[in-house]
């Protein structure tokens, strides 16, 4: 990585990710946005590979884009990846359902008062 400004920003963003005050996907988005707008980053031939490495380190497996996951891990079968995505989707749906149930219970309690 040749851009000192990007290196400093990545370190700062990573600290926010570790403190859970920034989403890992947002960090990657910020890195990619900077890379497309910075003159130094646009001419850096190794930057794309380095961004992929950072993405693999920071993002949970289920949030990494499918094309990137397939490139980085040839031994994984596509069926396994789809199953992981399905499991992630199901857990998100369960969370949303439980939040809806909690909101309905609160409404019921408020109506009873």
Task: Describe this structure as you would to a colleague.
The chain folds into 2 domains: 1-59, no CATH class; 75-113. It has 6 helices and no strands. It has helices at 4-18, 24-37, 39-43, 47-58, 66-72, 78-112. Helix 1 runs antiparallel to helix 2 and helix 2 (24-37) runs antiparallel to helix 4 (47-58). It starts with a helix and ends with a helix.
On the 0 to 100 scale, the average pLDDT is 74
For the biggest sheet, the summary is:
none
Structural class: mainly alpha
Q: Are there runs of 5+ residues with pLDDT below 50, and where? A: none
- Proportion of beta-strand residues: under 5%
Element order: H for helix, E for strand: HHHHHH
Q: What radius of gyration results from the CA coordinates?
A: 20 Å
The 3D shape can be described as globular
In which range does the helix fraction lie? over 70%
How many domains make up the coordinates? 2
Number of strands: 0
Distance between the termini: 62 Å
Number of helices: 6
How do the helices and strands line up, and which of them pair or pack?
Blueprint: H1 4-18, H2 24-37, H3 39-43, H4 47-58, H5 66-72, H6 78-112
Helix pairs in contact: 1-2, 2-4
How would you concisely characterize the structure shown here?
By secondary structure, the chain is mainly alpha-helical.
Key features of this structure:
single chain, 113 residues, mainly alpha, 6 helices
């Amino acid at each position: 990585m040749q851009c000192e400004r990007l290196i400093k920003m990545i370190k700062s963003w990573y600290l926010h990710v570790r403190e859970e005050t920034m989403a890992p996907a947002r960090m990657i988005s910020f890195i990619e946005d900077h890379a497309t707008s910075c003159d130094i980053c646009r001419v850096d031939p190794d930057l794309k590979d380095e961004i992929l490495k950072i993405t693999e380190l920071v993002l949970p497996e289920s949030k990494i884009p499918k094309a990137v996951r397939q490139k980085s891990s040839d031994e994984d079968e596509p069926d396994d990846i789809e199953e992981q995505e399905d499991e992630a989707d199901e857990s998100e749906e369960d969370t949303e359902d439980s939040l809806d149930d909690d909101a309905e219970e609160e409404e019921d309690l408020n109506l009873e008062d």
